Amino acid sequence: MPVARPEPQEPRVIAHVDMDCFYVQVEQRRNLVLRGQPTAVVQYNDWKGGGLIAVSYEARGFGVKRSMRGDEAKRVCPGINLVQVPVARGKADLNLYRSAGSEVVAILASKGKCERASIDEVYLDLTDAAKEMLLQAPPDSPEEIFMEAAKSNILGLLSDAGEKEKNVRAWLCRSDADYQDKLLACGAIIVAQLRVRVLEETQFTCSAGIAHNKMLAKLVSGMHKPAQQTVVPSSSVQDFLASLPVKKMKQLGGKLGSSLQDDLGVETIGDLLSFTEDKLQEQYGVNTRTWLWKTARGISGEEVEDRLLPKSHGCGKTFPGPRALKNSASVKGWLDQLCEELSERIQSDLNQNKRIAQTLTLHARASKENERDSTKKFPSKSCPLRYGTGKIQEDAMKLFESGLHEFLESQNTGWSITSLSVTASKIFDIPSGTSSILRYIKGPSSAAPPAIPDSLSVPEDPSLDNDVFVKPIHEEQCQPSMSEKEDNNAHSASAISAKQRQANEEKRISKKLPEVKGTSSILKFLSWGQSTFHEKRKSDGLICSHQGPGSYSEANKAEEHNVPAEAGDRNNTSSCAEPSGSNTWMFNIQDIDPAVVEELPPEIQREIQGWVRPSKHPSTKRRGSTISSYFPPTRS
Ligand code: TTP
């Protein structure tokens, strides 16, 4: 259920930028003949010409839709060019598109906090940049307004077609506008400039929404496509929401939206205004009531996260109809492939970004031979992630066997698997200065105890950073990844700038994990996770923690729906400050694997428990026996 976040007091300027028919544009850039032609990108599976996953605006003009297959698209538009999505390991390989997305992100991130929401979508917090413009060079002359900005669509600004540009210019320069609208006007100009830069430097067009919060910016970014932007002044919010169908709101596309329609007769967001808070609370509880109440008024406090890298890496494949997998050998064959790719990605993430994934999760969709309509789901299974392709493959197969055992409930029946995916999540930055961990993980015996000297150092990799995100695709899916190819492309594709990398690195240092002087603590931290893992194996033959059937990859879901999987994490972040300011560091409770905690000395365990459930009588900390001394912060 959605949860309302407090709305900041100060007005903000938020943009949502979405690439136009993205995969098609990428293909058109590498094959200029396709430029301006009706074109679609199709799945490599050629049944009925393959499923369309991206359609150019020229093809849309002929009535071609993404729901069509290639054969149907050809009937509707005989001149259409169908481009096959690249293939690797028997499934779609999206690296080309991911790298292209990174090029765009690198440009957009130059103006403010940037959150990469999917392979082709970005949120920007432009508040500071807009304030600066308002202070330094406020737009005051309609004639001098930049052309692309003058083409903006301003919600609520009525004008005849011939007058539109003139009115937009005037709106952007209004001296009688309130502070919020003035900031928004600056935001619109900044976004227009960024979009022009994206076009010049990458040859891609994009569309954008500019508003005072993420929710509104996202809702309007696709309103005028392609290559246009839409601005939402506060005064137009109510009119806009009054006619917006509930299902258009990201969080209302599912059960909650259906319940609003069926149980309360709500068809548009505006309809919600007629319900009292009591009525909404009676129906949905206090949290959802608050969120609905605010949403109906266009209020959303959700912040733009400073995140250019994915929260998880995943790799999956579906096996529809006759392609369903019906025995362990075929499952193993595919799992091995998926794990190989996953392993490459996390290794690449480690090399490029100095990030480590902690949890491996397996998801599957399955049915039993004699119960085709059963609603029982294959349970998702997780375990601590061990680096190395062979280890990931081995663990994923164990997770599968464990899930299957539970799914079958001891029945001796046939089964079939229609989708498989593996995800690496709980990714954290290696604290700076902790370079020996790289060897620890890269080494051939990564599961072995850490017989590594503390002070080995690995030189900083200058090709840091690159990023990927992806939306679901019809038959195969590959979630966010870091690929070898991207490693290679990182420079040439002008990915994230050195300056940006440095800034990111600085931010990394100050967040989440303790800074560690030397490396022994972090090595212990990881080696505990791994030894626990082995012990669990020995004791019960299984290595998994149960996530429950409802948890079909929170990470996957998050990316599919562009909802950060750990959006609520901030609430769970415990900070532990030493008396001296320079020693302050933070742990995110969710970053600490419970299995690791169990192996910590009792006093440390108690301290961690205290973060989660503060004790009424906290014991006095003794230096040398607290978590902070276990993972000592850097003293500079
Ligand atoms: P979208 O942004 O949804 O669509 P788009 O960029 O193709 O077109 P639009 O101009 O309408 O925004 O998706 C971005 C890319 O993600 C798209 O080019 C192809 C891929 N994709 C899939 O592979 N499968 C899907 O189901 C969807 C929706 C997108």
UniProtKB/TrEMBL annotation:
Biased composition (Basic residues): 614-624
Biological process terms in GO annotation: DNA repair; error-prone translesion synthesis; response to radiation
Domain UmuC, first and last residues per copy: 14-253
Principal location class: nucleus
Biased composition (Polar residues): 490-501, 570-581, 625-636
Gene Ontology molecular-function annotations: damaged DNA binding; DNA-directed DNA polymerase activity; metal ion binding
InterPro entries documented for this protein: DNA/RNA_pol_sf, DNA_pol_Y-fam_lit_finger_sf, DNA_pol_Y-fam_little_finger, DNA_polymerase_eta, Rev_trsase/Diguanyl_cyclase, UmuC
GO CC annotations, alphabetized: nucleus; replication fork; site of double-strand break
Sequence segments annotated as region (Disordered): 479-512, 537-581, 607-636
Protein name, UniProt field: DNA polymerase eta
